[in-house]
Amino acid sequence: MLLVLKIFKITLSILYIITSWLYGRAFFKDDKIARRLKTKSLIFTLTLHFIYLIIRTAELKHPPVTSVFELLNVLGFSLALAYVIIEFITKIKNTGFFAILIASVLVIVSGIFSRDIYGFEYDVLKNELLALHVTSALVGYSAFALSAIYGLLYIMLYNKIKSKTFDTVYKNLPNLEKIESMLCKSATVGFFALTFVITVGFIWLPKAFKNFSYTDAKLIGTLIIWLVYGGGLGIRKIANLSGKKTATMTIVGFILVFILMGFANAMSGFHRFY
């Protein structure tokens, strides 16, 4: 079975490279064949990736959360999945190259450095709720990352319009209003995913971990992020904020996510498995 898992790793890396190439070809060259195949290729890749995660978890008796490189694999999957959700909601299909390229790098790096180890010392790793909890968290953070990517694209397009630079990037990006809609929807998806994570965490984690603590660094960091994004979405609605300010908020928000999760991972107690 380890051979099968290795074949999956190689196949997934190749599929992500092909999908990134199709999205890049469609964006930069406006290739009709690439435009027609890119979403289908991504859905097929995600389906195979999901099957791999299930088979790996069943075979090794633990979800892929026991090392940084295992988490990178799930993060790559989550980022690509978050993009597909946003693409489905908005019906806009020409911004995927940037997100899929990052997802591909994460999956490839994970495929090279992650190890397939049977069993683990923590009994909680055998619980299916942990896999759901971790995957939902990564989907939420991936949606926040996607929102920041759209924020950067908004500012990029805004500056091109301001400087009257009408190049390939300008021609292939959707208009500012649509990009703003995508970054807001991404942030909303992330907020609701994190809401689910926090709800499950507060109900299930105290029962699953003997050393559970409400003062755990990752719990506190997650709550701060949840409050920041919830507050940001609320302020945008109440104060009717839009445009460049909204785009800047998503970028600053994700920088905060990156910093807080960096500190939280280093200081967390029961949340660490590696």
UniProtKB/TrEMBL annotation:
Keywords for the protein's UniProt record, in alphabetical order: Membrane, Transmembrane, Transmembrane helix
GO biological process: cytochrome complex assembly
InterPro entries from the UniProt entry: Cyt_c_assembly, YpjD/HemX
Residue stretches making up the Cytochrome c assembly protein domain: 68-267
Transmembrane spans: 6-25, 37-55, 67-86, 98-118, 138-161, 182-205, 217-235, 247-267
Gene Ontology MF: a single term: heme binding
Signal peptide: none
Protein name per its UniProtKB record: ABC-type uncharacterized transport system, permease component
Protein species of origin: Candidatus Kryptonium thompsonii
Phylogenetic classification of the source organism: Bacteria, Pseudomonadati, Candidatus Kryptoniota, Candidatus Kryptonium
